[in-house]
């Protein structure tokens, strides 16, 4: 099946929800701008909402879960969206700019929240500790490791594994000191493996062994191949020089 190359109308939305509060959904009609960044250990976004009607002035969005989705309007299927990993509102600002009232929301993702979780006690491992890296990562993320037991439990999903993550036992080489950020301890454990971490839109932390060789990819762009998603289109430009002359006088 070929790719539909007709012009599509991009759309976006954010769904803001919190237990005990009314869910708010905003689309192109209210969203002025979304500045979103996603890295292995950081997910952030700044969303600007039109507040000209003052509908947002009295809403306190602190720690609302925000699910941002991007998509387009299909002529037959209607609005189609693809959500990113959930983010959480940590800042809200109301201001005016060039004739419009704006509500600005600052959001961060699960890795950023884990970076704020500080160990409440010290935990040194001993020579006889039999826990593998995989077991320790799950304990830190699931909030079952003693120093982090008072924090949020984040689900861990191991999509693929290298040869070390479930065999290597760090023992006394790994420890948790007072105030050690939870994310930092996961990063330390991952440093002994070739695995990577990614927070996904199912609200879980996914760990996987990345493919770094071969020709098998999750998605591939091709150049000028019929029926495939072209990376770019070929374009030719012909420049014409009009006949002219220069007159020099002395």
Structural features, described:
With 250 residues, the chain is mainly β. The strands form 3 sheets. Strands 1, 2, 3, 4, 5, 6, 7 and 8 form an 8-stranded antiparallel beta sheet that branches. Strands 10-13-12 form a 3-stranded mixed beta sheet, with helices on one face. The chain has helices at residues 110-116, 133-141, 182-190, and strands at 9-17, 24-26, 31-39, 42-50, 65-74, 78-83, 87-97, 100-109, 123-124, 156-158, 175-176, 196-199, 205-208. A hairpin with a 6-residue loop joins strand 1 and strand 2. The model has no long low-confidence stretch (mean pLDDT 89). Helix 2 (133-141) runs antiparallel to helix 3 (182-190). It folds into 2 domains: 9-111, Thrombin, subunit H (Beta Barrel); 117-208, Baseplate protein-like domains (Phage tail protein beta-alpha-beta fold), CATH 3.55.50.
Based on the model shown, name its key terms:
13 strands
CATH topology of the largest domain: Thrombin, subunit H
State the end-to-end distance: 70 Å
Helical amount among residues, as a percent range?
10-25%
What fraction strand?
A: 25-35%
CATH class of the largest domain, anyone?
A: Mainly Beta
Main sheet specs: 8 strands, antiparallel
Write the layout of secondary structure elements.
Layout: E1 9-17, E2 24-26, E3 31-39, E4 42-50, E5 65-74, E6 78-83, E7 87-97, E8 100-109, H1 110-116, E9 123-124, H2 133-141, E10 156-158, E11 175-176, H3 182-190, E12 196-199, E13 205-208
Parallel strand pairs: 10-13
Antiparallel strand pairs: 1-2, 1-5, 3-4, 4-8, 5-6, 5-7, 7-8, 9-11, 12-13
């Amino acid at each position: 099946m070929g790719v539909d190359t007709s012009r599509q109308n991009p759309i976006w939305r954010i769904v803001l929800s919190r237990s005990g509060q009314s869910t708010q959904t905003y689309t192109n009609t209210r969203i002025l701008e979304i500045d979103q960044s996603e890295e292995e250990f950081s997910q952030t976004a700044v969303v600007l909402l039109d507040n000209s009607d003052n509908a947002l002035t009295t809403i306190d969005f602190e720690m609302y879960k925000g699910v941002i989705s991007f998509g387009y309007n299909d002529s037959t299927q209607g609005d189609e969206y693809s959500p990113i990993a959930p983010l959480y509102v940590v800042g809200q600002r109301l201001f005016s700019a060039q004739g419009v009232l704006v509500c600005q929301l600052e959001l961060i993702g699960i890795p950023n929240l884990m970076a704020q979780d500080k160990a409440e006690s010290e935990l040194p491992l001993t020579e006889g500790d039999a826990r593998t890296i995989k077991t320790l990562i799950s304990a830190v993320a699931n909030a079952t490791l003693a120093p982090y037991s008072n924090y949020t439990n984040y689900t861990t999903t191991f999509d693929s594994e290298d040869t070390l993550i479930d065999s290597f036992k760090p023992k006394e080489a790994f420890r948790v000191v007072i105030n050690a950020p939870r994310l930092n301890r996961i990063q330390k454990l991952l440093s002994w493996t070739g695995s990577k971490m990614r927070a996904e839109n199912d609200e879980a932390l996914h760990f996987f062994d990345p493919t770094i060789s071969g020709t098998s990819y999750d998605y591939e762009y091709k150049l000028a191949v019929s029926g495939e998603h072209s990376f770019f289109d070929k374009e030719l430009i012909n420049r014409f020089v009009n006949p002219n002359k220069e007159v020099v006088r002395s």
